[in-house]
User: Which sequence fits this backbone?
């Protein structure tokens, strides 16, 4: 296989939204710190939505971005919380996938934290190939050609092979 076609994990983002600032947000930050070992970044609102009580620049959530080997290790434990099953709907057309965990106590490495209570969070995984840097570099940015992008089926095959994950269809049946 061509080394330029090898798929790797670019980043794993763990996101927790609380919809409002306050003690719930502080509990969420503590939870993300326990999961990742890193200090979470705050996420802020962009728009004003008066019916929801939101205004611009209001802190309503937190996230942690993991890269490298740490991302692989934490992703494998988070997949265990989902019994190593991911829905086919979790994959987008560009080869990325995401899933949610309703209660953090489902994660095998975490015990119940009394200060936090029960919370859930989302995980988004971005995949890449060598050469994807051209879309982010400072000089002469370029688009990634269609032949080099990661398709949904390639992402599913990578996930199955790397993490021993079973893929389910929309009805919950196992795909082969």
Assistant:
């Amino acid at each position: 296989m061509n080394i330029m076609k090898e798929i790797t994990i670019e980043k794993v983002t763990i996101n927790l939204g609380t919809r409002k600032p306050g003690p719930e947000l502080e509990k969420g930050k503590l939870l993300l710190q326990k999961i990742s070992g890193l200090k979470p970044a705050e996420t802020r609102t962009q728009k004003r939505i008066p019916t929801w009580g939101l205004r611009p620049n209001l802190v309503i959530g937190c996230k942690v971005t993991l890269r490298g080997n740490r991302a692989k290790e934490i992703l494998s434990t988070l997949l265990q919380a989902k019994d190593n099953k991911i829905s086919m709907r979790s994959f987008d057309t560009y080869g990325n996938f995401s899933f949610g965990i309703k209660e953090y106590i489902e994660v095998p490495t975490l015990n119940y934290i009394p200060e936090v209570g029960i919370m859930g969070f989302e995980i988004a995984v971005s995949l890449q190939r060598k050469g994807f840097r051209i879309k982010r570099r400072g000089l002469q940015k370029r688009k990634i050609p269609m032949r080099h992008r990661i398709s949904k089926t390639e992402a599913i095959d990578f996930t199955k092979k790397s993490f021993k994950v079973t893929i389910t269809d929309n009805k919950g049946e196992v795909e082969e």
